[in-house]
Each structure stands twice: as C-alpha cells, then as structure tokens.
Amino acid sequence: MRQLLVAVVAVVLAGQAGAQAVPDETVWPKPRLSYSSAGTPAGGDSEQSLATQLSNPVADLISVPFQLNWNQGIGDGNGTQTYMNIQPVIPISISEDWNLISRTILPLVSFSDLTPDFGTVNGLGNTTQSFFFSPKAPTKGGLIWGVGPVFNVPTATNGIAPNQWGAGITGVVLTQKHGWTLGMLANQIWSVNKEEQFGESSNMFLQPFISYSTKKATSITLNTESTYNWVDETWSVPINFTVGQIIKLGGKPVQITGGVRYWAESPDEAAEGWGARLVVTYLFPKGKG
After folding, report:
1. How far apart, in whole angstroms, are the C-alpha atoms of residue 163 and residue 147?
2. Is the predicted pLDDT of residue 174 greater than 90, yes or no?
3. Is 178 exposed, middle or buried (0-12, 13-18, 19+ CB in 10 A)?
4. The whole model's pTM is what?
5. Are the beta carbons of 280 and 253 closer than 8 angstroms?
6. Cβ–Cβ < 8 Å for 127, 104
7. Where are the alpha helices (DSSP H) in 147-245?
8. In whole angstroms, what is the distance from residue 280 CA to residue 18 CA?
9. Residues 206, 184: contact at Cβ < 8 Å?
10. Which of 136, 117, 125, 130 is nearest to 75 (CA)?
11. Where are the alpha helices (DSSP H) in 119-190?
12. Rounded alpha-carbon distances, angstroms, from residue 25 to 87, 92, 128, 185
C-alpha cells in the first residue's frame, strides 16, 4: 500500500511540474475480487462544463484519471487490497457525425494479509480496453449513447488475476440536463483462451450512475460497479459515493475526487464492509496547451 500511495503523490507532483514548465479480478485462484471497470454539453471549456463532461463516459474530452482504491475484509477477514487504476480516455473523430472513444483501465494492485502467513503481493492486473462508437450529437430526445467491443488483455503479473484473453460487448446510455447526469454503463466479457488452465470466465459489469455538477465545478456522484460472475453465480456490488472538485494546478484543470464505498454484496473471501477512493484526473480540453 505504501508503494501505491507514494506513486499517487508522485503522479500529482509530476502533473504540477509538467503544467509549470493523465470484472472481477484478484490473486488467483482465490479469493476473487472486483475492481473496476465506463455528446458534450454546451459551455465550452469552463470549469462547470468540464465537470459535466467528466460525468459522461463518452464525452469529447481527453482525460487521464489515476484512481486509488482501498478495500478490506479479504481472505480470512483481515486482508486488505489497494489498487490504482490508470484510466486514460481518448476520443477520436472518425467522421463528421461520429467519435470513437477509447477507454483503458490498467490496475496496479497490492494485496496484504489475506492469511496469517500471506504477507504482501504487488503486481499488475489485467487491462480492460473498451471502444465506444458514439454519435457526436445527442438524439432528439436528449440521449447520449455509445456501443462497441471490449477486451480483457492478459497483463496480470504475480498471480494477481487469470492471465487469459477475454472479449465481449460494451455500451453506455445517459442523459444530461441542468447539471444532472443519469445513465448506465455495462459490459459482458467472456474468456477466449487458456480455459483449460484458468477455467472458463464470463462476467457482466453494470454501472448505473447519477451525478450533479454545480456552477462551482463540484461534482457529487452515486454509483454502483456491480459484477455478476455467471460461472460462480455470485454478485460483487460496491456502492460508491464521491465528491469531486475541479481546480487549477499551474493553470491546468485537474479534478480531485474523494469518497467512500460500501460492499452491499460480495463473494466469500472477497472485500466487505467499507472502502475508500481517491482520484486525480488530468484534463486536456481542446484548444488548451
């Protein structure tokens, strides 16, 4: 955990220096845990507009969140998990009317004290790579949506997760009005290789979310990041409440977010009780150097 906290501090300091001169995984095979994995409103690049765009998973805005998470109650009940998701979001214009949104999640994971003699294990988790084909303009009814493929890329080290490829489909739909954002991001990923070694994998991810962004660029968000394991027939349901604020570091917009998590449902030996989240998100509005 100390190594990941040091990494987050280094990321923040690096961002300041640069501005002045961006389904159910764990130590395998047991226990299994989850970490997540999901139109642009008027207003230009004002801080309020940026806060609203960040609530939209397919906004036409480059962002690089560094999301630090902490969970407890793992293994024999005394274990902890700390992981930092590096989550660059890159929109690419592919036509006059369509964007392709690339969303990547690369986890840096640390487990401690899962059993009395376990110690600490650090490593990479598998990477989740999503691509959303999304219209640049909302529908006449005001809906913003995107759909496309999602891949589980086997980047795990030190037994953090089953090191196998997976593929599936992902989608998002939302609406934004008067500072409010209401929507759902979902995906389904199936394993496509090494099933004789790691077993078959089939996981559904559901992320309903509601967020409100104030005129002072404060965002208040409530969501779940629920995973259903079709093979084990188990749910992982963390409920997250976070508050974010856009500030300027060296004249550049950065969102700082903090919050808590409560595990409403989880498999045996997985995370339970309360957890915490801290996010530093670097923003790169168009036309801003």
Report:
1. 26
2. yes
3. exposed
4. 0.85
5. no
6. yes
7. 195-198
8. 15
9. yes
10. 117
11. none
12. 17, 29, 11, 19
